[in-house]
Amino acid sequence: MQVTNANPSRRNPFRHGGGDLRPFRKANQRQSVCGIALALALTTCLAFRLDAQSPQSENVKPVPLLTGSAGFITTFDGGEPHIGPIVSSIVLLPLGQRWLFETRATFESDMVQEPGLSGFHGMVRKEVDYAQLDFIASPYLTVTVGRFLTPFGIFNERLYPVWIRNLQTDPLILPIGIGPSNASMGAMLRGGFKAHPQFNINYAVYFSALSTANPVNSDRFAGGRAGVFVPKARLEIGVSFQHLLQEERSNSFGFHAIWQPMALPLDVRAEYAHAKRGSGYWVESAYRLGQLRFLQNEMRRTQLVARMQQFIAGVLPSDSLPSVNTKQFECGLNYYFVDGLKATSSYGRQFSADGNKNVWTLGLTYRYVLPLGPAGSE
Amino acid sequence: MGRRYILLCFLGVMGGLTFSAIAQERANSATSSSAAAPAPTRAAGGTPAAKPSSATAATAEDAAAVERALRFEGEKRFRTNCGRCHMAPHKFPPRVMATAIRHMRVRALITDEDMRLILHYMTQ
């Protein structure tokens, strides 16, 4: 379920400098890092001088939290069964009125039947997905440093956890623009604000340094994402851009949209991404059956999902992306037992030059929230 | 290359700060004007010297109306913002919600105003 790492050659440190140019590039890199550090220090210091700070509401003091999700997903990929238990825990540590330290660690396994052995076998993969320190400098600006999920498109940052996603398979284009381990190592400025009575604007600009320490490796790139959210129409559209500062030094860009019409319990989400290693799109709709007149208690907990996606192979190879043009259609059925506990199932058909196959998933996901201190009365 | 990069970073940050400061100034003026607005309404609710009890009742009614409006708006923002990515969760205890909303402010880039209204709604 997790994205496999990109082509190992992409993370090879000896490919980034290149012979005699390496010392020169290292000096440049040091200067760039100094520049970023200086810019962030200035941002942080100057932000304190702004008057209209946003101390978090009123008299409610936030408490540290242990939250996250657990899931048990069974996948039949081309007839081969995979068992995928996953636990993904997030620690949220609020510090004062403006700071937040947040980190997420994931433990997961992809267990398969080995030839000649009985039962399912697989390694447990442990990874710190992100560990970031956020400083809410003003109502319009939050400064983030550390390892953070790359804000390219919406899936990686917002829809990735198993309890949030409607279908348990990743979109084919997910690896585009998010780096070799889905995260960046560096700094980010981001925020959301009301730009007009009719719409909000949100943005994120970031810089990621090269890291070759597996599994927290990251590429060296800079990029940004901007979105417009129209609350009345419940429509968000946005654009992402990224420039790779190593290897082929290519650009990637993408678009995303989320729409929830007022009249229907329907979610429509879509993304498009383009890079030298490939491009494609996915469109997903999810409909809650709450409008049906029979078995209303059950129907409002039931969700039908459909996703169509297409990937077009790029001029450069990639390990994490399909090697050939691929189309995939999926439909699914989810049932929410209670808030946070969901049964999920789906069927998909993949069409590619490598061969067509069916992809089935069946699973159970759970989201938990545990306060690490007095939580206050309800 | 390095100097140019530093300069670009510096200009970008300064531009962001300037924009932020201007936007805050606007927000400040909007807040002060909206804070001044309820005063005449309360004064018009009764004659304090003549009928203190009716004035108190009117003030209480106003406060209740404001509270209802805040709660309604908070619920609306809660449904609109949280439902964009996931099922809107049930209410959590206030201190849990305060942390969760700070996390969502960073993750989902909800605005400061939305954050305050949602937190108000979720902690009532």
Describe the 3D structure:
The complex is a heterodimer of chains A (378) and B (124). Chain A has 378 residues and is mainly beta. Chain A has a single domain, classed as Porin (Beta Barrel), CATH 2.40.160. Chain A has a 16-stranded antiparallel barrel with strand order 1-2-3-6-7-8-9-10-11-12-13-14-15-16-17-18. Chain A is globular. Chain B has 124 residues and is mainly alpha-helical. Chain B has a domain of 74 residues. Chain B contains five helices and no strands. Chain B starts with a helix and ends with a helix. Chains A and B meet through α1, β2, β6, β7 and α2 of A and α1, α4 and α5 of B.
Descriptive terms for the model:
heterodimer; A: about 375 residues; mainly beta; Porin; 16-stranded antiparallel beta barrel; 18 strands; about 50% strand; disordered N terminus; B: about 120 residues; mainly alpha
Gap between N and C termini of chain B: 54 Å
Main beta-sheet annotation of chain A: 16 strands, antiparallel, barrel
Query: What is the CATH C level class of chain A, in words?
Result: Mainly Beta
Count every helix of chain B, treating DSSP H or I runs of 4 or more residues as helices: 5
| Main sheet makeup of chain B | none
First-last Cα distance of chain A: 36 Å
Low-confidence stretches of chain A: 1-24, 45-56
The stretches of 5 or more residues of chain B where confidence is low (pLDDT under 50) are 31-49
- Within the largest sheet of chain A, what's the order of strands? 1-2-3-6-7-8-9-10-11-12-13-14-15-16-17-18
Rg of chain B (C-alpha, Å): 21 Å
CATH-assigned fold name of chain A: Porin
For the largest interface, the chains and their residue counts are:
A-B, 79 and 57 residues
Class of secondary structure makeup of chain A: mainly beta
CATH architecture of chain A: Beta Barrel
- The average pLDDT of chain A is 86
